Every structure is written in structure tokens, then in C-alpha cells.
Amino acid sequence: MADTSEEDILAPLRLMEKLNDGPLHYYIALAETDDPVLRAAAWRTLIDAVSVPERLHGKLIADCRYGAVRKRAFDHFEIIFEHGLADEAMNTPLSGEDGAAELMRGLAERDYARARDGCILMFLADGQPQHLAAATDHAEGAGGWRSAAATAAQALA
Questions:
Q1: 80 phi and psi, to 5 degrees?
Q2: Model pTM?
Q3: N or C end of the chain: which has fewer CB within 10 A?
């Protein structure tokens, strides 16, 4: 595995600067990243607070491909009487990636990067944070402390 630079490791944590503008700005910044893990976590908080800006509805629909987002998005759109968007959320095809199978293959083959990726897929499927803790453990086996630190920073952000 290639060396992970300090910049790469700390990138997710740098978004915490947005907390100075208030938590809503922070979670919106997370929802606008290219990182599906950060987005899935952000959607959970924004939806629970009924604070998804209208301009982000399209991004939220796109992320309904992840089970961790789909049902929450559907419920959110129903609550705000956006039934058409609720239908879009419901009908968005799931990613189809099997995180548990990827994890098992990685463990069986002693491919810890694959095991890490499987755990991340499992998080995207159900939103359970323990998958990110396991991903961090497997990342260390895959690439040492730098890889683990990068995965941990992603989970902490």
C-alpha cells in the first residue's frame, strides 16, 4: 500500500473547522464531500434534525444507493411532504456491493485492505459505526499505522 501522507490522513478532520460556523454548516460540508462514508454520516444527522437544505436533495437521492441512507431519506421526504422525492429515494437501486462477503474474502485471503473495504461497505449498508472501528483495525493490518490513522480520521469526522 502506498504511503499515506499527513495531508491525506488529516483531510477529513480539517472539515471540523466548519464547526466554528455551527454544526449545521459542518454537516452540510460533510454531505458535500466525495467521501461516501462522510456523506452517509452527515445525512443521518441532517435528516434527524430535519435540516437537509433543498439544494442538497439531489445529492441525498443519489446517496440512497446506500442502505444506511435510503430509508432515512424516504422518511425525511415523507415528513416534509415531498412525496415525489420519497418515491425517488425508494426507487433508487441499492449499490449491490456485499460488504460481508468482501470482508470474509479479505480475511480468508489475509488481504486486510479488502477486509477494510468490506467493513466500509457494511457501514454504508446499515450505518452501524462498529463497522468503521473494524475497518480501522483491518486498515492497520493492510498498511500500518498511517492507513489506520486515515481510516480512523474518516470515522471520527
A1: -95, 15
A2: 0.83
A3: N
- Return the C-alpha cell found at 56: 442538497
pLDDT reported for residue 5: 65
Residue with cell 477486509: 115
CA distance 47 to 17: 22
Identify the pLDDT of residue 74. 98
3-state DSSP of the chain: CCCCCHHHHHHHHHHHHHHHHCHHHHHHHHHCCCCHHHHHHHHHHHHHCCCCCHHHHHHHHHHHHCHHHHHHHHHHHHHCCCHHHHHHHHHCCCCCCCHHHHHHHHHHCCCHHHHHHHHHHHHHHHCCCHHHHHHHHHHHHHHHHHHHHHHHHHHHC
